[in-house]
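Title: Prediction job returns without error message
Component: structure pipeline
Severity: low
Priority: P3
Assignee: unassigned

Description:
Job completed but the reporter wants confirmation the result is attached to the right record. Sequence as submitted:
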Amino acid sequence: MRQLLLLTCLAAAPHLCAQTISGTVKDTSGRPLAAATITLLRVNDSIPQRLALSDAAGRFQISLPSAGSYILCASHVAFSRSCSAPFTNNNAPSPSLVLQPKGGTLQEVTVAVQRPVLEARADRLVVNVEGTLNSVGSTALDVLRRSPGVSVDHEDNLSISGKNGVQVFIDGRPSPLSGTELSAYLSSLQSSQIDAIEIISNPSAKYEAAGNGGIINIRMKKNKALGTNGSVNAGFGIGVYAKYNAGFSINHRTKHFNIFGTYTAAVNKNLTSTDTYRVLNDSVFDQHARRITTDRPHNVQAGIDYFIGKAHTIGVLLNLLPGKQRLDNSSGNDISGVAGGAPARYLESVVLNDIERRNTGVNLNYRFASGTREFNADFDRSAYRSYSDQVVANDFYNGQRVYQNHSGYHMLAPGSISMWAGRASYDRDAWKGRISFGGKYGSVTSDNTLDPYDVFPSGEKADSSRHNSFLYEEAVSALFARFQKDLPRVSWQIGVRTEHTEVRGRSRGFRSSTGGFSAYDSAFTRSYTDLFPSLSLTFKDRGRGQFGISLGRRIDRPPYQDLNPFEFRSDVYTSRRGNTALRPQYTDVIELTHVWRGRLTSILTYSRVHDVFTQIFDTTERFKSFITRSNVQLQQVASLSINYVLQGKKHSGFLNINPAYNSYSGNFGKDRNLELEAFSVTMKAQYGYRFGRGWSAEAAAQYNSPGIGLGFFYGRANGSFDLAAARTAFQNRLSIKAAISDIFFTAINGGHSFFAGQYMEVQRSFEPRVLRINVAYRFGSNTVKAARNRKTLIDEENKRLQTSN
C-alpha cells in the first residue's frame, strides 16, 4: 500500500529542478530506521508534494518543488508519525526525525520493496544480487565479473577500476584467504546465498588500511521476519558439462532470539581452453591445453543473536566450508626453431591435481547502542586447511610423433592458514559532530610443506633437492580516530590510522651440493609502522546532487601464498614459484565524486602505487620459464567511473562506463626494463522488465577494450551477452528462473607480452552458452511485525565494515 501511495504521488508531482534535502530517521534509542516513508507537505493545505523511502542506514533525500512553505513527516510501521518544523526553500534544514514506538499490539503487515539492481551512493556502489536474474545458479566469482567497475582476469585476480590489491570481506569481516585460495572460496559460494555486493573504492580511516584497489563486501542473506521461515532451492546447468546446486535456509526469530542456519552444496564441472605461443631464445613453443575443473563445495552457516533489552546484542556466527576440487589438465606442445619448419619435438603432458579444502570460522560480537552512543567488540577465529595431491606425466615425441621417452612428477602439498583477530570501536556525538575511535590486533600463521617425488616405471623416489617447508607469521596492530561533521551545505570528515606490522618467515629444505644434498635453514624478519591519514568533503548543491572529494593512503601486504618459495611444475618447461622478498605496496589516492538525484554517479580517481606487486613471466636456463610475483617500482592509474541507475515501476537496470589510463614503470636489471601504458574502456549494462502475472526478463552485456592485464600483458578486447527470465507463483513463494550466459561466445581472454627476452601470446576461453535453471520455494512467515524493528549484528557490521587484515 505504501508503495502504491508513493508511486501515485510521484506521478502527480511536478518535475521541476529544485533543491534537495538530506536527513535521517531514527528510533528513540538512536537506531536508524529503514524503509520509513518520508512525506513533503505544503503548509497551507497539507497536500503531499514528494515522497521518499529511507535506506538501510536511515538516510533519505527528497527534492523541493517551487518556492513555498513545507514540512517533512516520517512514518513507519509500529511507530508514531513525526514531523519537522515548517521551513522554506531559503532555510531548508537537514533534519533528523525521531519516531516514538506505538503503544499496544499491532497486526502483522507485509512489506514488499523492489530494490534497484544497482544503488549509487556517495561512498560506494551496491549491487543487489537477489534482484538480478542473470545471477541464477552462478557463483560469487561469476557475479563479480558482471559487477560495475570490477574486473576478473584469466587468473581470477580481482581489480577495481584498473587497480589490483582488492580486499574481500564476507558480511563485513575480512577473508584471510588470497590468491588461488580466495578464488576457490568465491567459486564455492553460491549466488543464492548472497544478498548484495558493496564496492568501496576509497574507504575512510575507520576501515583497514589494506586494499589498494578498495573493498568488496559480500553481504549474505539473512531473514528479519518474526516466527519460523525458510527456503529450499535446487538448480541445474548445462554447457559442455552438467552442473548442479541445491540448498536450504531456516530462520527462527522471537523478541529476544534470532536463530538461523543455511546449507548449500554444488557440483560444478567446467571446461577451460588455453592456447599459449611462446618464443624463447631460438625455440618456439606452441601449446594447446584443456583443463576440466570439477568443484564439489559445501557451505554450512549457523548462528544466533541474543537481544538483551533495547541496548545490548550478543551474536555468535559459525561457518564451515569443506570441499573437494579436481583439476584435469591435458596439453600438447609443438617445439620448433625460430627459423620455422616442422616441429623438432612434441611434448604431451597430463596434470591431475586433487585438492581438499576445509575452511572453518567463528565470530563473537557484542554491540551496545543507546542514544547517540555505540560500542562494538568482535573476536574472530578462522582456520583454512588444504591438501594438494598433484601428478604430472610428460611424454616426449620427435617431430614425426614417434615416442621417445617419459618423465613424471608427484607432489604432495599440505598447507594451513590460521587467523585470529580482536577489535573494538566506540562512536558518539561530540562537538556538534560525531567522533569514532578504536583499535584491533590480528595474527595470521601460514604453514606449508612441499614433498616432491620423481616417478619412474619402477616406482617413486623423493626429490630431496626440492623438498621445502615454509612457515610465515604476521601480526598487525592498529589504532584509529575519526571525526565527522554535517553542516547544512557541507559534510566533512578527517581521520588517521596507524598500523604496526611484525613479520617472521622461515624456509627449510635441501639443495643440491657436491656429492649429494645439503640442508638449509633461512629466515627473515620485518617490522614497520605506517600512518594512513584520510580526508573527505561532501558539498550539497541547491539542485538534486552532491559533490565530494576524498584523499587517502593505503597499503597492501603480499598474499601469503605468493611469499611461499615452493616451485610447482606444470610441465618440463614451465613452473610457478613464490617470492619471499615481496614488499608491501603503498597507494596514494585522490577521488572526486558527483551524485545526481541518486541515479547518476561519476567517480574520478587518480592513484599512485609504489612497489606494486604483479605477475612476472620470467626465464631460467635456456628453454624454461616460470611465473612469480615481484615488486614493480611504480603504477599510475587514472579512471572515470560513470554509473546510471534506471528504476521504474516495471523496469530496472544500470549502465556503467569506466575509461581508465594505466601505466607501469620498473627496472629488474639487464634486459628487464618495464615501461607499459595503455588506455582502456570497460562497459557494463543490465536491463530488466516485469511483464506482470509473475513474469520478468533481463538482459546483461559487458565489453572490455584492449588494455593492460597482470602488469606485463597487453590484453585483447572481449565481452559477453547474457539473457534470463523468471516466473513467480503462489504469492511469490515459488520462483523459477532460467539464464543463459555468453550467448555469442565472446568472453575470451587473451593478450601478449615481451619481457626478459621472451615473447608470449595467451588466449583463454571458458564454457560458452551455459544454460542454468533454478527453482526456489519460500515457506513460513513473510511478515515483519510491528512489535519489532531491530538491526542484527551482521547488519551493523555491513554498515560500518570495521575490518582486520
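Comment from assignee: result matches the submitted record. The helical segments are 2-12, 140-146, 179-188, 560-563, 793-800.
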